Amino acid sequence: MATMRAVDIKGGKGPISALFINSESPKPTPKGSQALVKVKAFGLNRMDLLQREGHYPLPPQAPSTLGVEFSGTIESFGCEPERGFNIGDEVFGLAYGGAYAEYIAVSTHMLIHKPKELSWEEAAGIPETWITATQALYLIGDYKPGRSVLWHAGASSVSISGIQLAKGDGASAIYVTASSQEKIDFCKSLGATEGFNYKTGDWAQELLKYTDGKGVDLIVDFIGAGYFDQNLEAAAKDGHIVSLGNMGGSVVEKPVDISRFLRKRLRYEGSSLRSRDEDYQGKLRDQLVEHALPKFVDGSFKVIVEKVFKMDEIQAAHELLASNQTKGKLIVTV
Questions:
Q1: Cα 186 versus chain centre, distance
Q2: Where are the chain's structural domains?
Q3: Angle at the Cα of 290 (from 289 to 295), degrees rounded to 5?
Q4: Which CATH superfamily includes the segment(s) 3-126+276-333?
Q5: Could you give the residue ranges of the DSSP H alpha helices within the chain?
Q6: If one looks up domain 130-270 in CATH, what number appears?
Q7: Which of 45, 70, 221, 317 is the most buried (most CB within 10 A)?
C-alpha cells in the first residue's frame, strides 16, 4: 500500500498537543470524477478546531483527515473526471476533508485552475472562505446591488472575502462588527463603510444611530444566540439574516421580542456548506470563478494571508487560529 505524510490526531480527537505528522498515512486513490492532487499548500479554518476536538459532525463522504481547502498539481484521475483538466494542471479547490496531507483525492467538479497571478499560498486560502461568502451573499442572502450588508466578525476570513465581494458588486454600505478599532480600520481598508466595536458598546444601537434608524438589509452572522436579539434590532424592514455559526452559543438565554419578525417582515435563515452535495458546491464554484476569479487576476480582490506555516508546525498554526487574534488566512505549506 502506498503511503504519504499527513496530519493525524492521536486517539482520533483531542487537544492541539494530539496533532502529529503520520508518515504512514494511506495515499488516496482517485475514483469516479475525482482527481489525485499533490498538495502544495492548505488553508486552516475554524471548523478544523471543532473537528479536532470531536465536535464537528462530518458528512459521510469526508475522510477523517482534517482540511477542506488546498492548492496543488493534478497527478492522476479516476475513471470519469470533468473535462477541461489534465495531469500536471495547477489547481486549487474545496474538499469534504483530507487536505492536511501530501495528497488528496477530490472531485474535479470542485477544482479551479490556478491563475499564474496567485501564489500557492493565496490560492489555498480562497476556496472555503470565498465560497462560503459567495453562498451567504447570493444563494442564501439573495443580495442585489444597492443593498447594505453587515458582516459580523469583520476581520475573519469569510468576512474579509464578503466585504470585498459586496464592494465589488455595488453595496450601498458595508458594515462590520469587530473586537478592536485596529480590526475595524483593517476592514475599512478593504472597503467597509463603518465598523462597530462589540466590546465597547451596543453595536446594534450604534448601527441604528449611524443609519438614522433604518438598519441594514442583510446581516451575515457567525455568532448565533449571543447576537439573536441585536440582529432583529439592527435589521432593516424586509431584512434578511443569514446564520452561519454559533460562536456565541446556540441557546438564547433571555426573553426576546419576536414581534420584530412581523413588524419588519424579516427572514432568518441558516445554512452550511460542507454538508451540501457536489452539485450544489459545484454551482458555487462556478459562481466564484465567474464573479471573483477575474478580480483576483487583476488584483482588485486580495487574499489576505496572515501567516504561513510548514506542515511540521501544525500545532503552532492551530494555537494561533484558536487565539482569535488573526486578520486573514493561516496557510500551511506541504
A1: 18
A2: 3-126+276-333, 130-270
A3: 80
A4: Medium-chain alcohol dehydrogenases, catalytic domain (3.90.180.10)
A5: 46-52, 120-124, 127-134, 157-168, 181-190, 203-210, 228-234, 259-263, 278-291, 293-298, 314-322
A6: 3.40.50.720
A7: 70
- Tracing cell 498537543 back to the chain, one arrives at 17
DSSP state for residue 222 in the 8-state scheme: S
Global pTM reads: 0.90
Please name the amino acid found at residue 199: K
Judge contact between 164 and 301, C-beta under 8 A. Answer: yes
Cα gap 171→111, rounded to integer Å: 29
The amino acid occupying position 166 is A
- Mean pLDDT calculated for residue range 66-88: 95
Q: pLDDT tens digits for 155-214?
A: 999 999 999 999 999 999 999 999 999 999 999 999 999 999 999 999 999 999 999 999
Q: Give the CA angle between residues 238, 239, 243 to the nearest 5°.
A: 140
pLDDT at 276: 79
- Could you check whether 3-126+276-333 and 130-270 share the same CATH topology? no
Q: Rounded to an integer, what distance in angstroms lies between the CA atom of residue 287 and that of residue 126?
A: 13
Return d(Cα 331, Cα 334) in angstroms, integer.
10
d(CA 225, CA 298): 40
Is residue 39 within 8 A of residue 101, CB to CB? The reply is yes
Spacing of C-alpha 98 from chain mean position: 16
